[in-house]
Amino acid sequence: MEQIDVAYDLNRALKGTLALVLAGGRGSRLMALTDDEAKPAVPFAGKFRIIDFPLSNCINSGIRRIAVPTQYKAHTLIRHIQRGWSFFRAEINEFVELWPAQQQTRDEAWYRGTADAVYQNLDTIRAHDPDYILILAGDHVYRQDYSRMLAHHLETGADVTVSCVEVPLKQATGFGCVDVDETDSIVGFLEKPANPPHIPGDPTRAFASMGIYIFNRDLLERLLESDADTPTSSHDFGKDIIPSLLGRYKLMAHRFSDSAVRSAPDAEPYWRDVGTVDAYWEANLDLVNVTPALDLYDHSWPIWTYQEQLPSAKFVFDNEQRRGMAVDSLVSGGCIVSGATVRRSLLFSNVRVNSFSLVEDTVVLPGADIGRNCRIKRAIVGNRCRVPEGLVVGEDREADARRFHVTEDGVTLITQRMLEALPAGEGARPVPAA
User: Fold this and answer.
1) DSSP result, 91-158
2) Is 398 within any annotated ligand binding site?
3) 88 lies in a domain?
4) Which of 210, 249, 321, 387 is the most exposed place for a label (fewest CB within 10 A)?
């Protein structure tokens, strides 16, 4: 009887949960990749966008009331959600709603932080009358069963639950770190500390906040109203709201390993902040491995997205002079590899690689067209780039840095604007109208 009651309470709590996927930020560390769209809208894994991961986690977890507050260059993001996430049934109170920034407070300000983004939408939240608020970042790649986290929140009687991922202690200095006692109650919250606190019983690892929180709705309202009236606050959950609760409310850390969705029992709990060019390149190219850390072929936990109708990928020409082929690569729909060689690379939708060209260890974003006789290595080729014939990238770092953006790890980021700025003779072909 007790198990039935627990299941009933969790089912009721899931129906009473409103998920807010915060998608207003630019993600400036991705450099030119976010010149025209917010980080959550950046393409990932061949056919998806980053925001598809938290949205899919919600659906697969049984949470079907979702809102997406937007702000920075949101057109691409809004169009994607309208096209790919409009299958909910409003008559049974299911939805994915877009909440554009509307300067709804007396200050008539844009969102000033993650907490302010929620505060400015309090009236809309009250209209939905949820019992619990699940706060999610729209710019991380991971698979997580939020129902397990919500069950933990209910079982512990927490006021706030913070999802935490284990990281090596030496890497924890780059995260917001959570200090816990033996029961995983939060006793400290430190932003990028020089000496991170370790997990009890494991001096080699620390808890890093994932930016995922469950709040009891009434408490969250009071906290946001108080924070809005605090002039010294940066109006951020990690910097202001959570630290202010220490010693006053019951804060629990939820171990990501307890709710991570894995393809095998011993698989790594996968979570990536693809917030830098190097991290984005590495996470995408990991998918071409024989056994990638992120299993997108797991039918029990599908990642949903907008399904553009495209023809199958095509490989043409097979002779000694030119052979259309891709090895150890992921090639999406609509691609044509015409007499070119692609190795250890990921081609997004509608990419064309023309004859006598070589593409290695490279991520090519949707709609790019790589001209003949090119050699592109260790690079990211941006949306709809028209790469000119004979361009060589990845063999002379100094030359690459003069023309494009080269990261510390030697990955070259190429965008259409950079190509258009090349000297005469290296100029890019014009981009046809979308």
Assistant:
1) GGT-EEEEEE----STT-----SHHHHHHTTHHHHHHH--SEEEEEESS-EE-B-HHHHHHHHHHHT-
2) no
3) yes
4) 321
pLDDT recorded at residue 4: 45
List of residues 6+ apart from 27 with CB closer than 8 A = 33, 34, 38, 39, 40, 42, 139, 275
Residue 300 located in a structural domain? no
Tell me the whole-structure pTM to 2 decimals.
0.94
> Whole-angstrom Cα distance, residue 247 to residue 50?
36
| Distance in angstroms (rounded) separating the CA atoms of residues 342 and 358 | 6
What tens digit of pLDDT does each residue of 131-163 get?
Answer: 999 999 988 999 999 999 999 999 999 999 999
Domain count for the chain, please give it.
2
Average pLDDT, the chain: 93
Q: What angle do CA 42, 28, 220 make, to 5 degrees?
A: 85
Q: What is the pLDDT of residue 290?
A: 94
Q: Tell me whether residue 209 is annotated as binding.
A: yes
191 is in an annotated binding site: yes
> Is 192 labelled as part of a ligand binding site?
yes
Residue 34 has pLDDT above 50, yes or no: yes
Annotated binding-site residue? 37: no
Q: How many CA atoms lie within 13 A of 216 on its CB side?
A: 14
